[in-house]
Amino acid sequence: MGKRLNNIGRWVLRAIAAAGAVVAVCASGCEKSSQSPSVSSGNPTTNPSSPATQPAYSFLMIDGKLEQFPPALLRLQAKGGQVTALLCTDDPPEALNDSYQGNSFYLPMVLDIADPADIGTAQWKCSAGNDHIDSPEGIFLHGAKLQLQPFKDVEVDFAGSEPKVTVSVNGQFLAASTVRGGPESLPKFSQVSGTFPSQATEPK
Fold it and tell me: Which one in 8, 83, 116, 183 has a CA-CA gap of 20 to 30 Å to 202?
């Protein structure tokens, strides 16, 4: 099962990288000032780009530790009176390497709105079963070696309008190692919270 889960981790990194290429908003990381909080770096090897043009990093508090992620993408699509959303990270090219140690997320959602123009009022809620399942969806830490899947009272709220939408995440996630021989002392659940900007787009 460990090998299978590890394949899932690599697959999701490739999927997120592809999503970033399609939206065409790939960006390098931003510089941290000396006053920035200490975080687990989501992209330690990316060179900083112009602060005037780069998207902001995403941050999530996970079990009391601030984790850094690449910029967030929000892909919206309306079909059959429903709006689906894919919230994912805009990973750098090196995310495809086995040595990559950054963080990422890949969260598809069906929203409670019928028109993407109403994204500022949308909310997504999720409560799942008690067992971890083989899936490319979730929050991935340390080069996809640790996977967090929505579990209990997970809420994602949206504010603003395209192309700049603010995303807020809060809830309990199931934690599991995706590699054979991974840590055995993982907490079964992780508390996740955070608010960050995203680049929202719709298919043309």
Answer: 8
Contact (CB, 8 A) for 191 and 67: no
What is the C-alpha separation between 179 and 199, in angstroms, rounded? Answer: 31
Angle among Cα 144, 159, 21 to the nearest 5 degrees reads 45
Per-residue H/E/C for 12-44: HHHHHHHHHHHHCCCCCCCCCCCCCCCCECCCC
Count Cβ atoms below 10 Å from residue 35 Cβ, excluding itself: 5
Domain boundaries, position 76: 2-201
Rounded distance, CA 150 to CA 166, Å? Answer: 20
Cα 113 to Cα 44, 84, 106, 116: the distances in Å are: 37, 9, 20, 7
Selection from 136, 135, 139 nearest residue 154 by Cα: 139
Q: What is the mean pLDDT of each run of 10 residues along the chain (204 residues)?
A: 44 46 32 33 38 74 96 96 96 91 96 96 86 83 91 95 97 84 65 97 86
Q: How far is residue 102's CA from residue 29's CA, in Å, rounded to a whole number?
A: 12
Residue 186 near residue 175 (C-beta atoms within 8 A): yes
Rounded CA gap, 49 and 148, in Å? 30
Handedness of CA 47, 42, 96, 52 (dihedral sign): negative
> Taking the model in full, what pTM does it have?
0.72
